[in-house]
Amino acid sequence: MFEKLKDQPAVGKLIAQYDQLPRRDQQALLVLMLAVFLGVLYFAIWLPASSFHDSARAERENAAELLAWMQANEATITRLGSAQGEGSQGTSDVPDGRALMALVTRSARESGLALQRFEPSGENAIRVWLEDAPFADFAAWLEQLNTSHGVIIDQAAMDRADEPGRVSVRLTLTI
Q: Is the pTM of this model over 0.85?
């Protein structure tokens, strides 16, 4: 294979130029080629593979933590799921979106949660943002909203904060 490569005119010309260089320049060129090869190897192969491995490991740990939490709270999750399925929407004592906004902000304040931002979303829904909130307080607040007022979660996105037991959350709550 190398013989076919050496037979190429451009490669032959490069080899001839290399052979004409002084011995010291040949050694420097070999060291430079080795450094470039190692740099390409590190930045093109090792670094991407390593970062992919680290992110996959972090995702696996997050999924394991979520699974453990869900298994530990299976009874509560099942009860909340069945309460929503039994038509708790129809038993709501909240008549419209403005009252829902007042209810959500008041109950969050009473639960010790600081809403980062909130805004109406349609007629009977509200979007809520919480940053760095204690997860236990947040979960208790949502359960209280659902069981006492029939407020349900339409959409949710939750991110783990840097500090254990704290989350950042984006919700759409509806009646």
A: no
Per residue, what are the HEC states of 60-91? HHHHHHHHHHHHHCHHHHHHHHHHHHCCCCCC
Burial of 44 (0-12, 13-18, 19+ CB in 10 A): exposed
3-state class (DSSP) for residue 111: coil
Measured distance CA(138)–CA(130) in Å, rounded? 9
d(CA 18, CA 165): 63
Find the helix or strand (DSSP H, E) in which 154 lies: strand 152-160
Residues in the chain: 175
- Which pLDDT tens digit goes with each residue over 54-99? 999 999 999 999 898 888 888 887 877 776 555 444 444 445 566 7
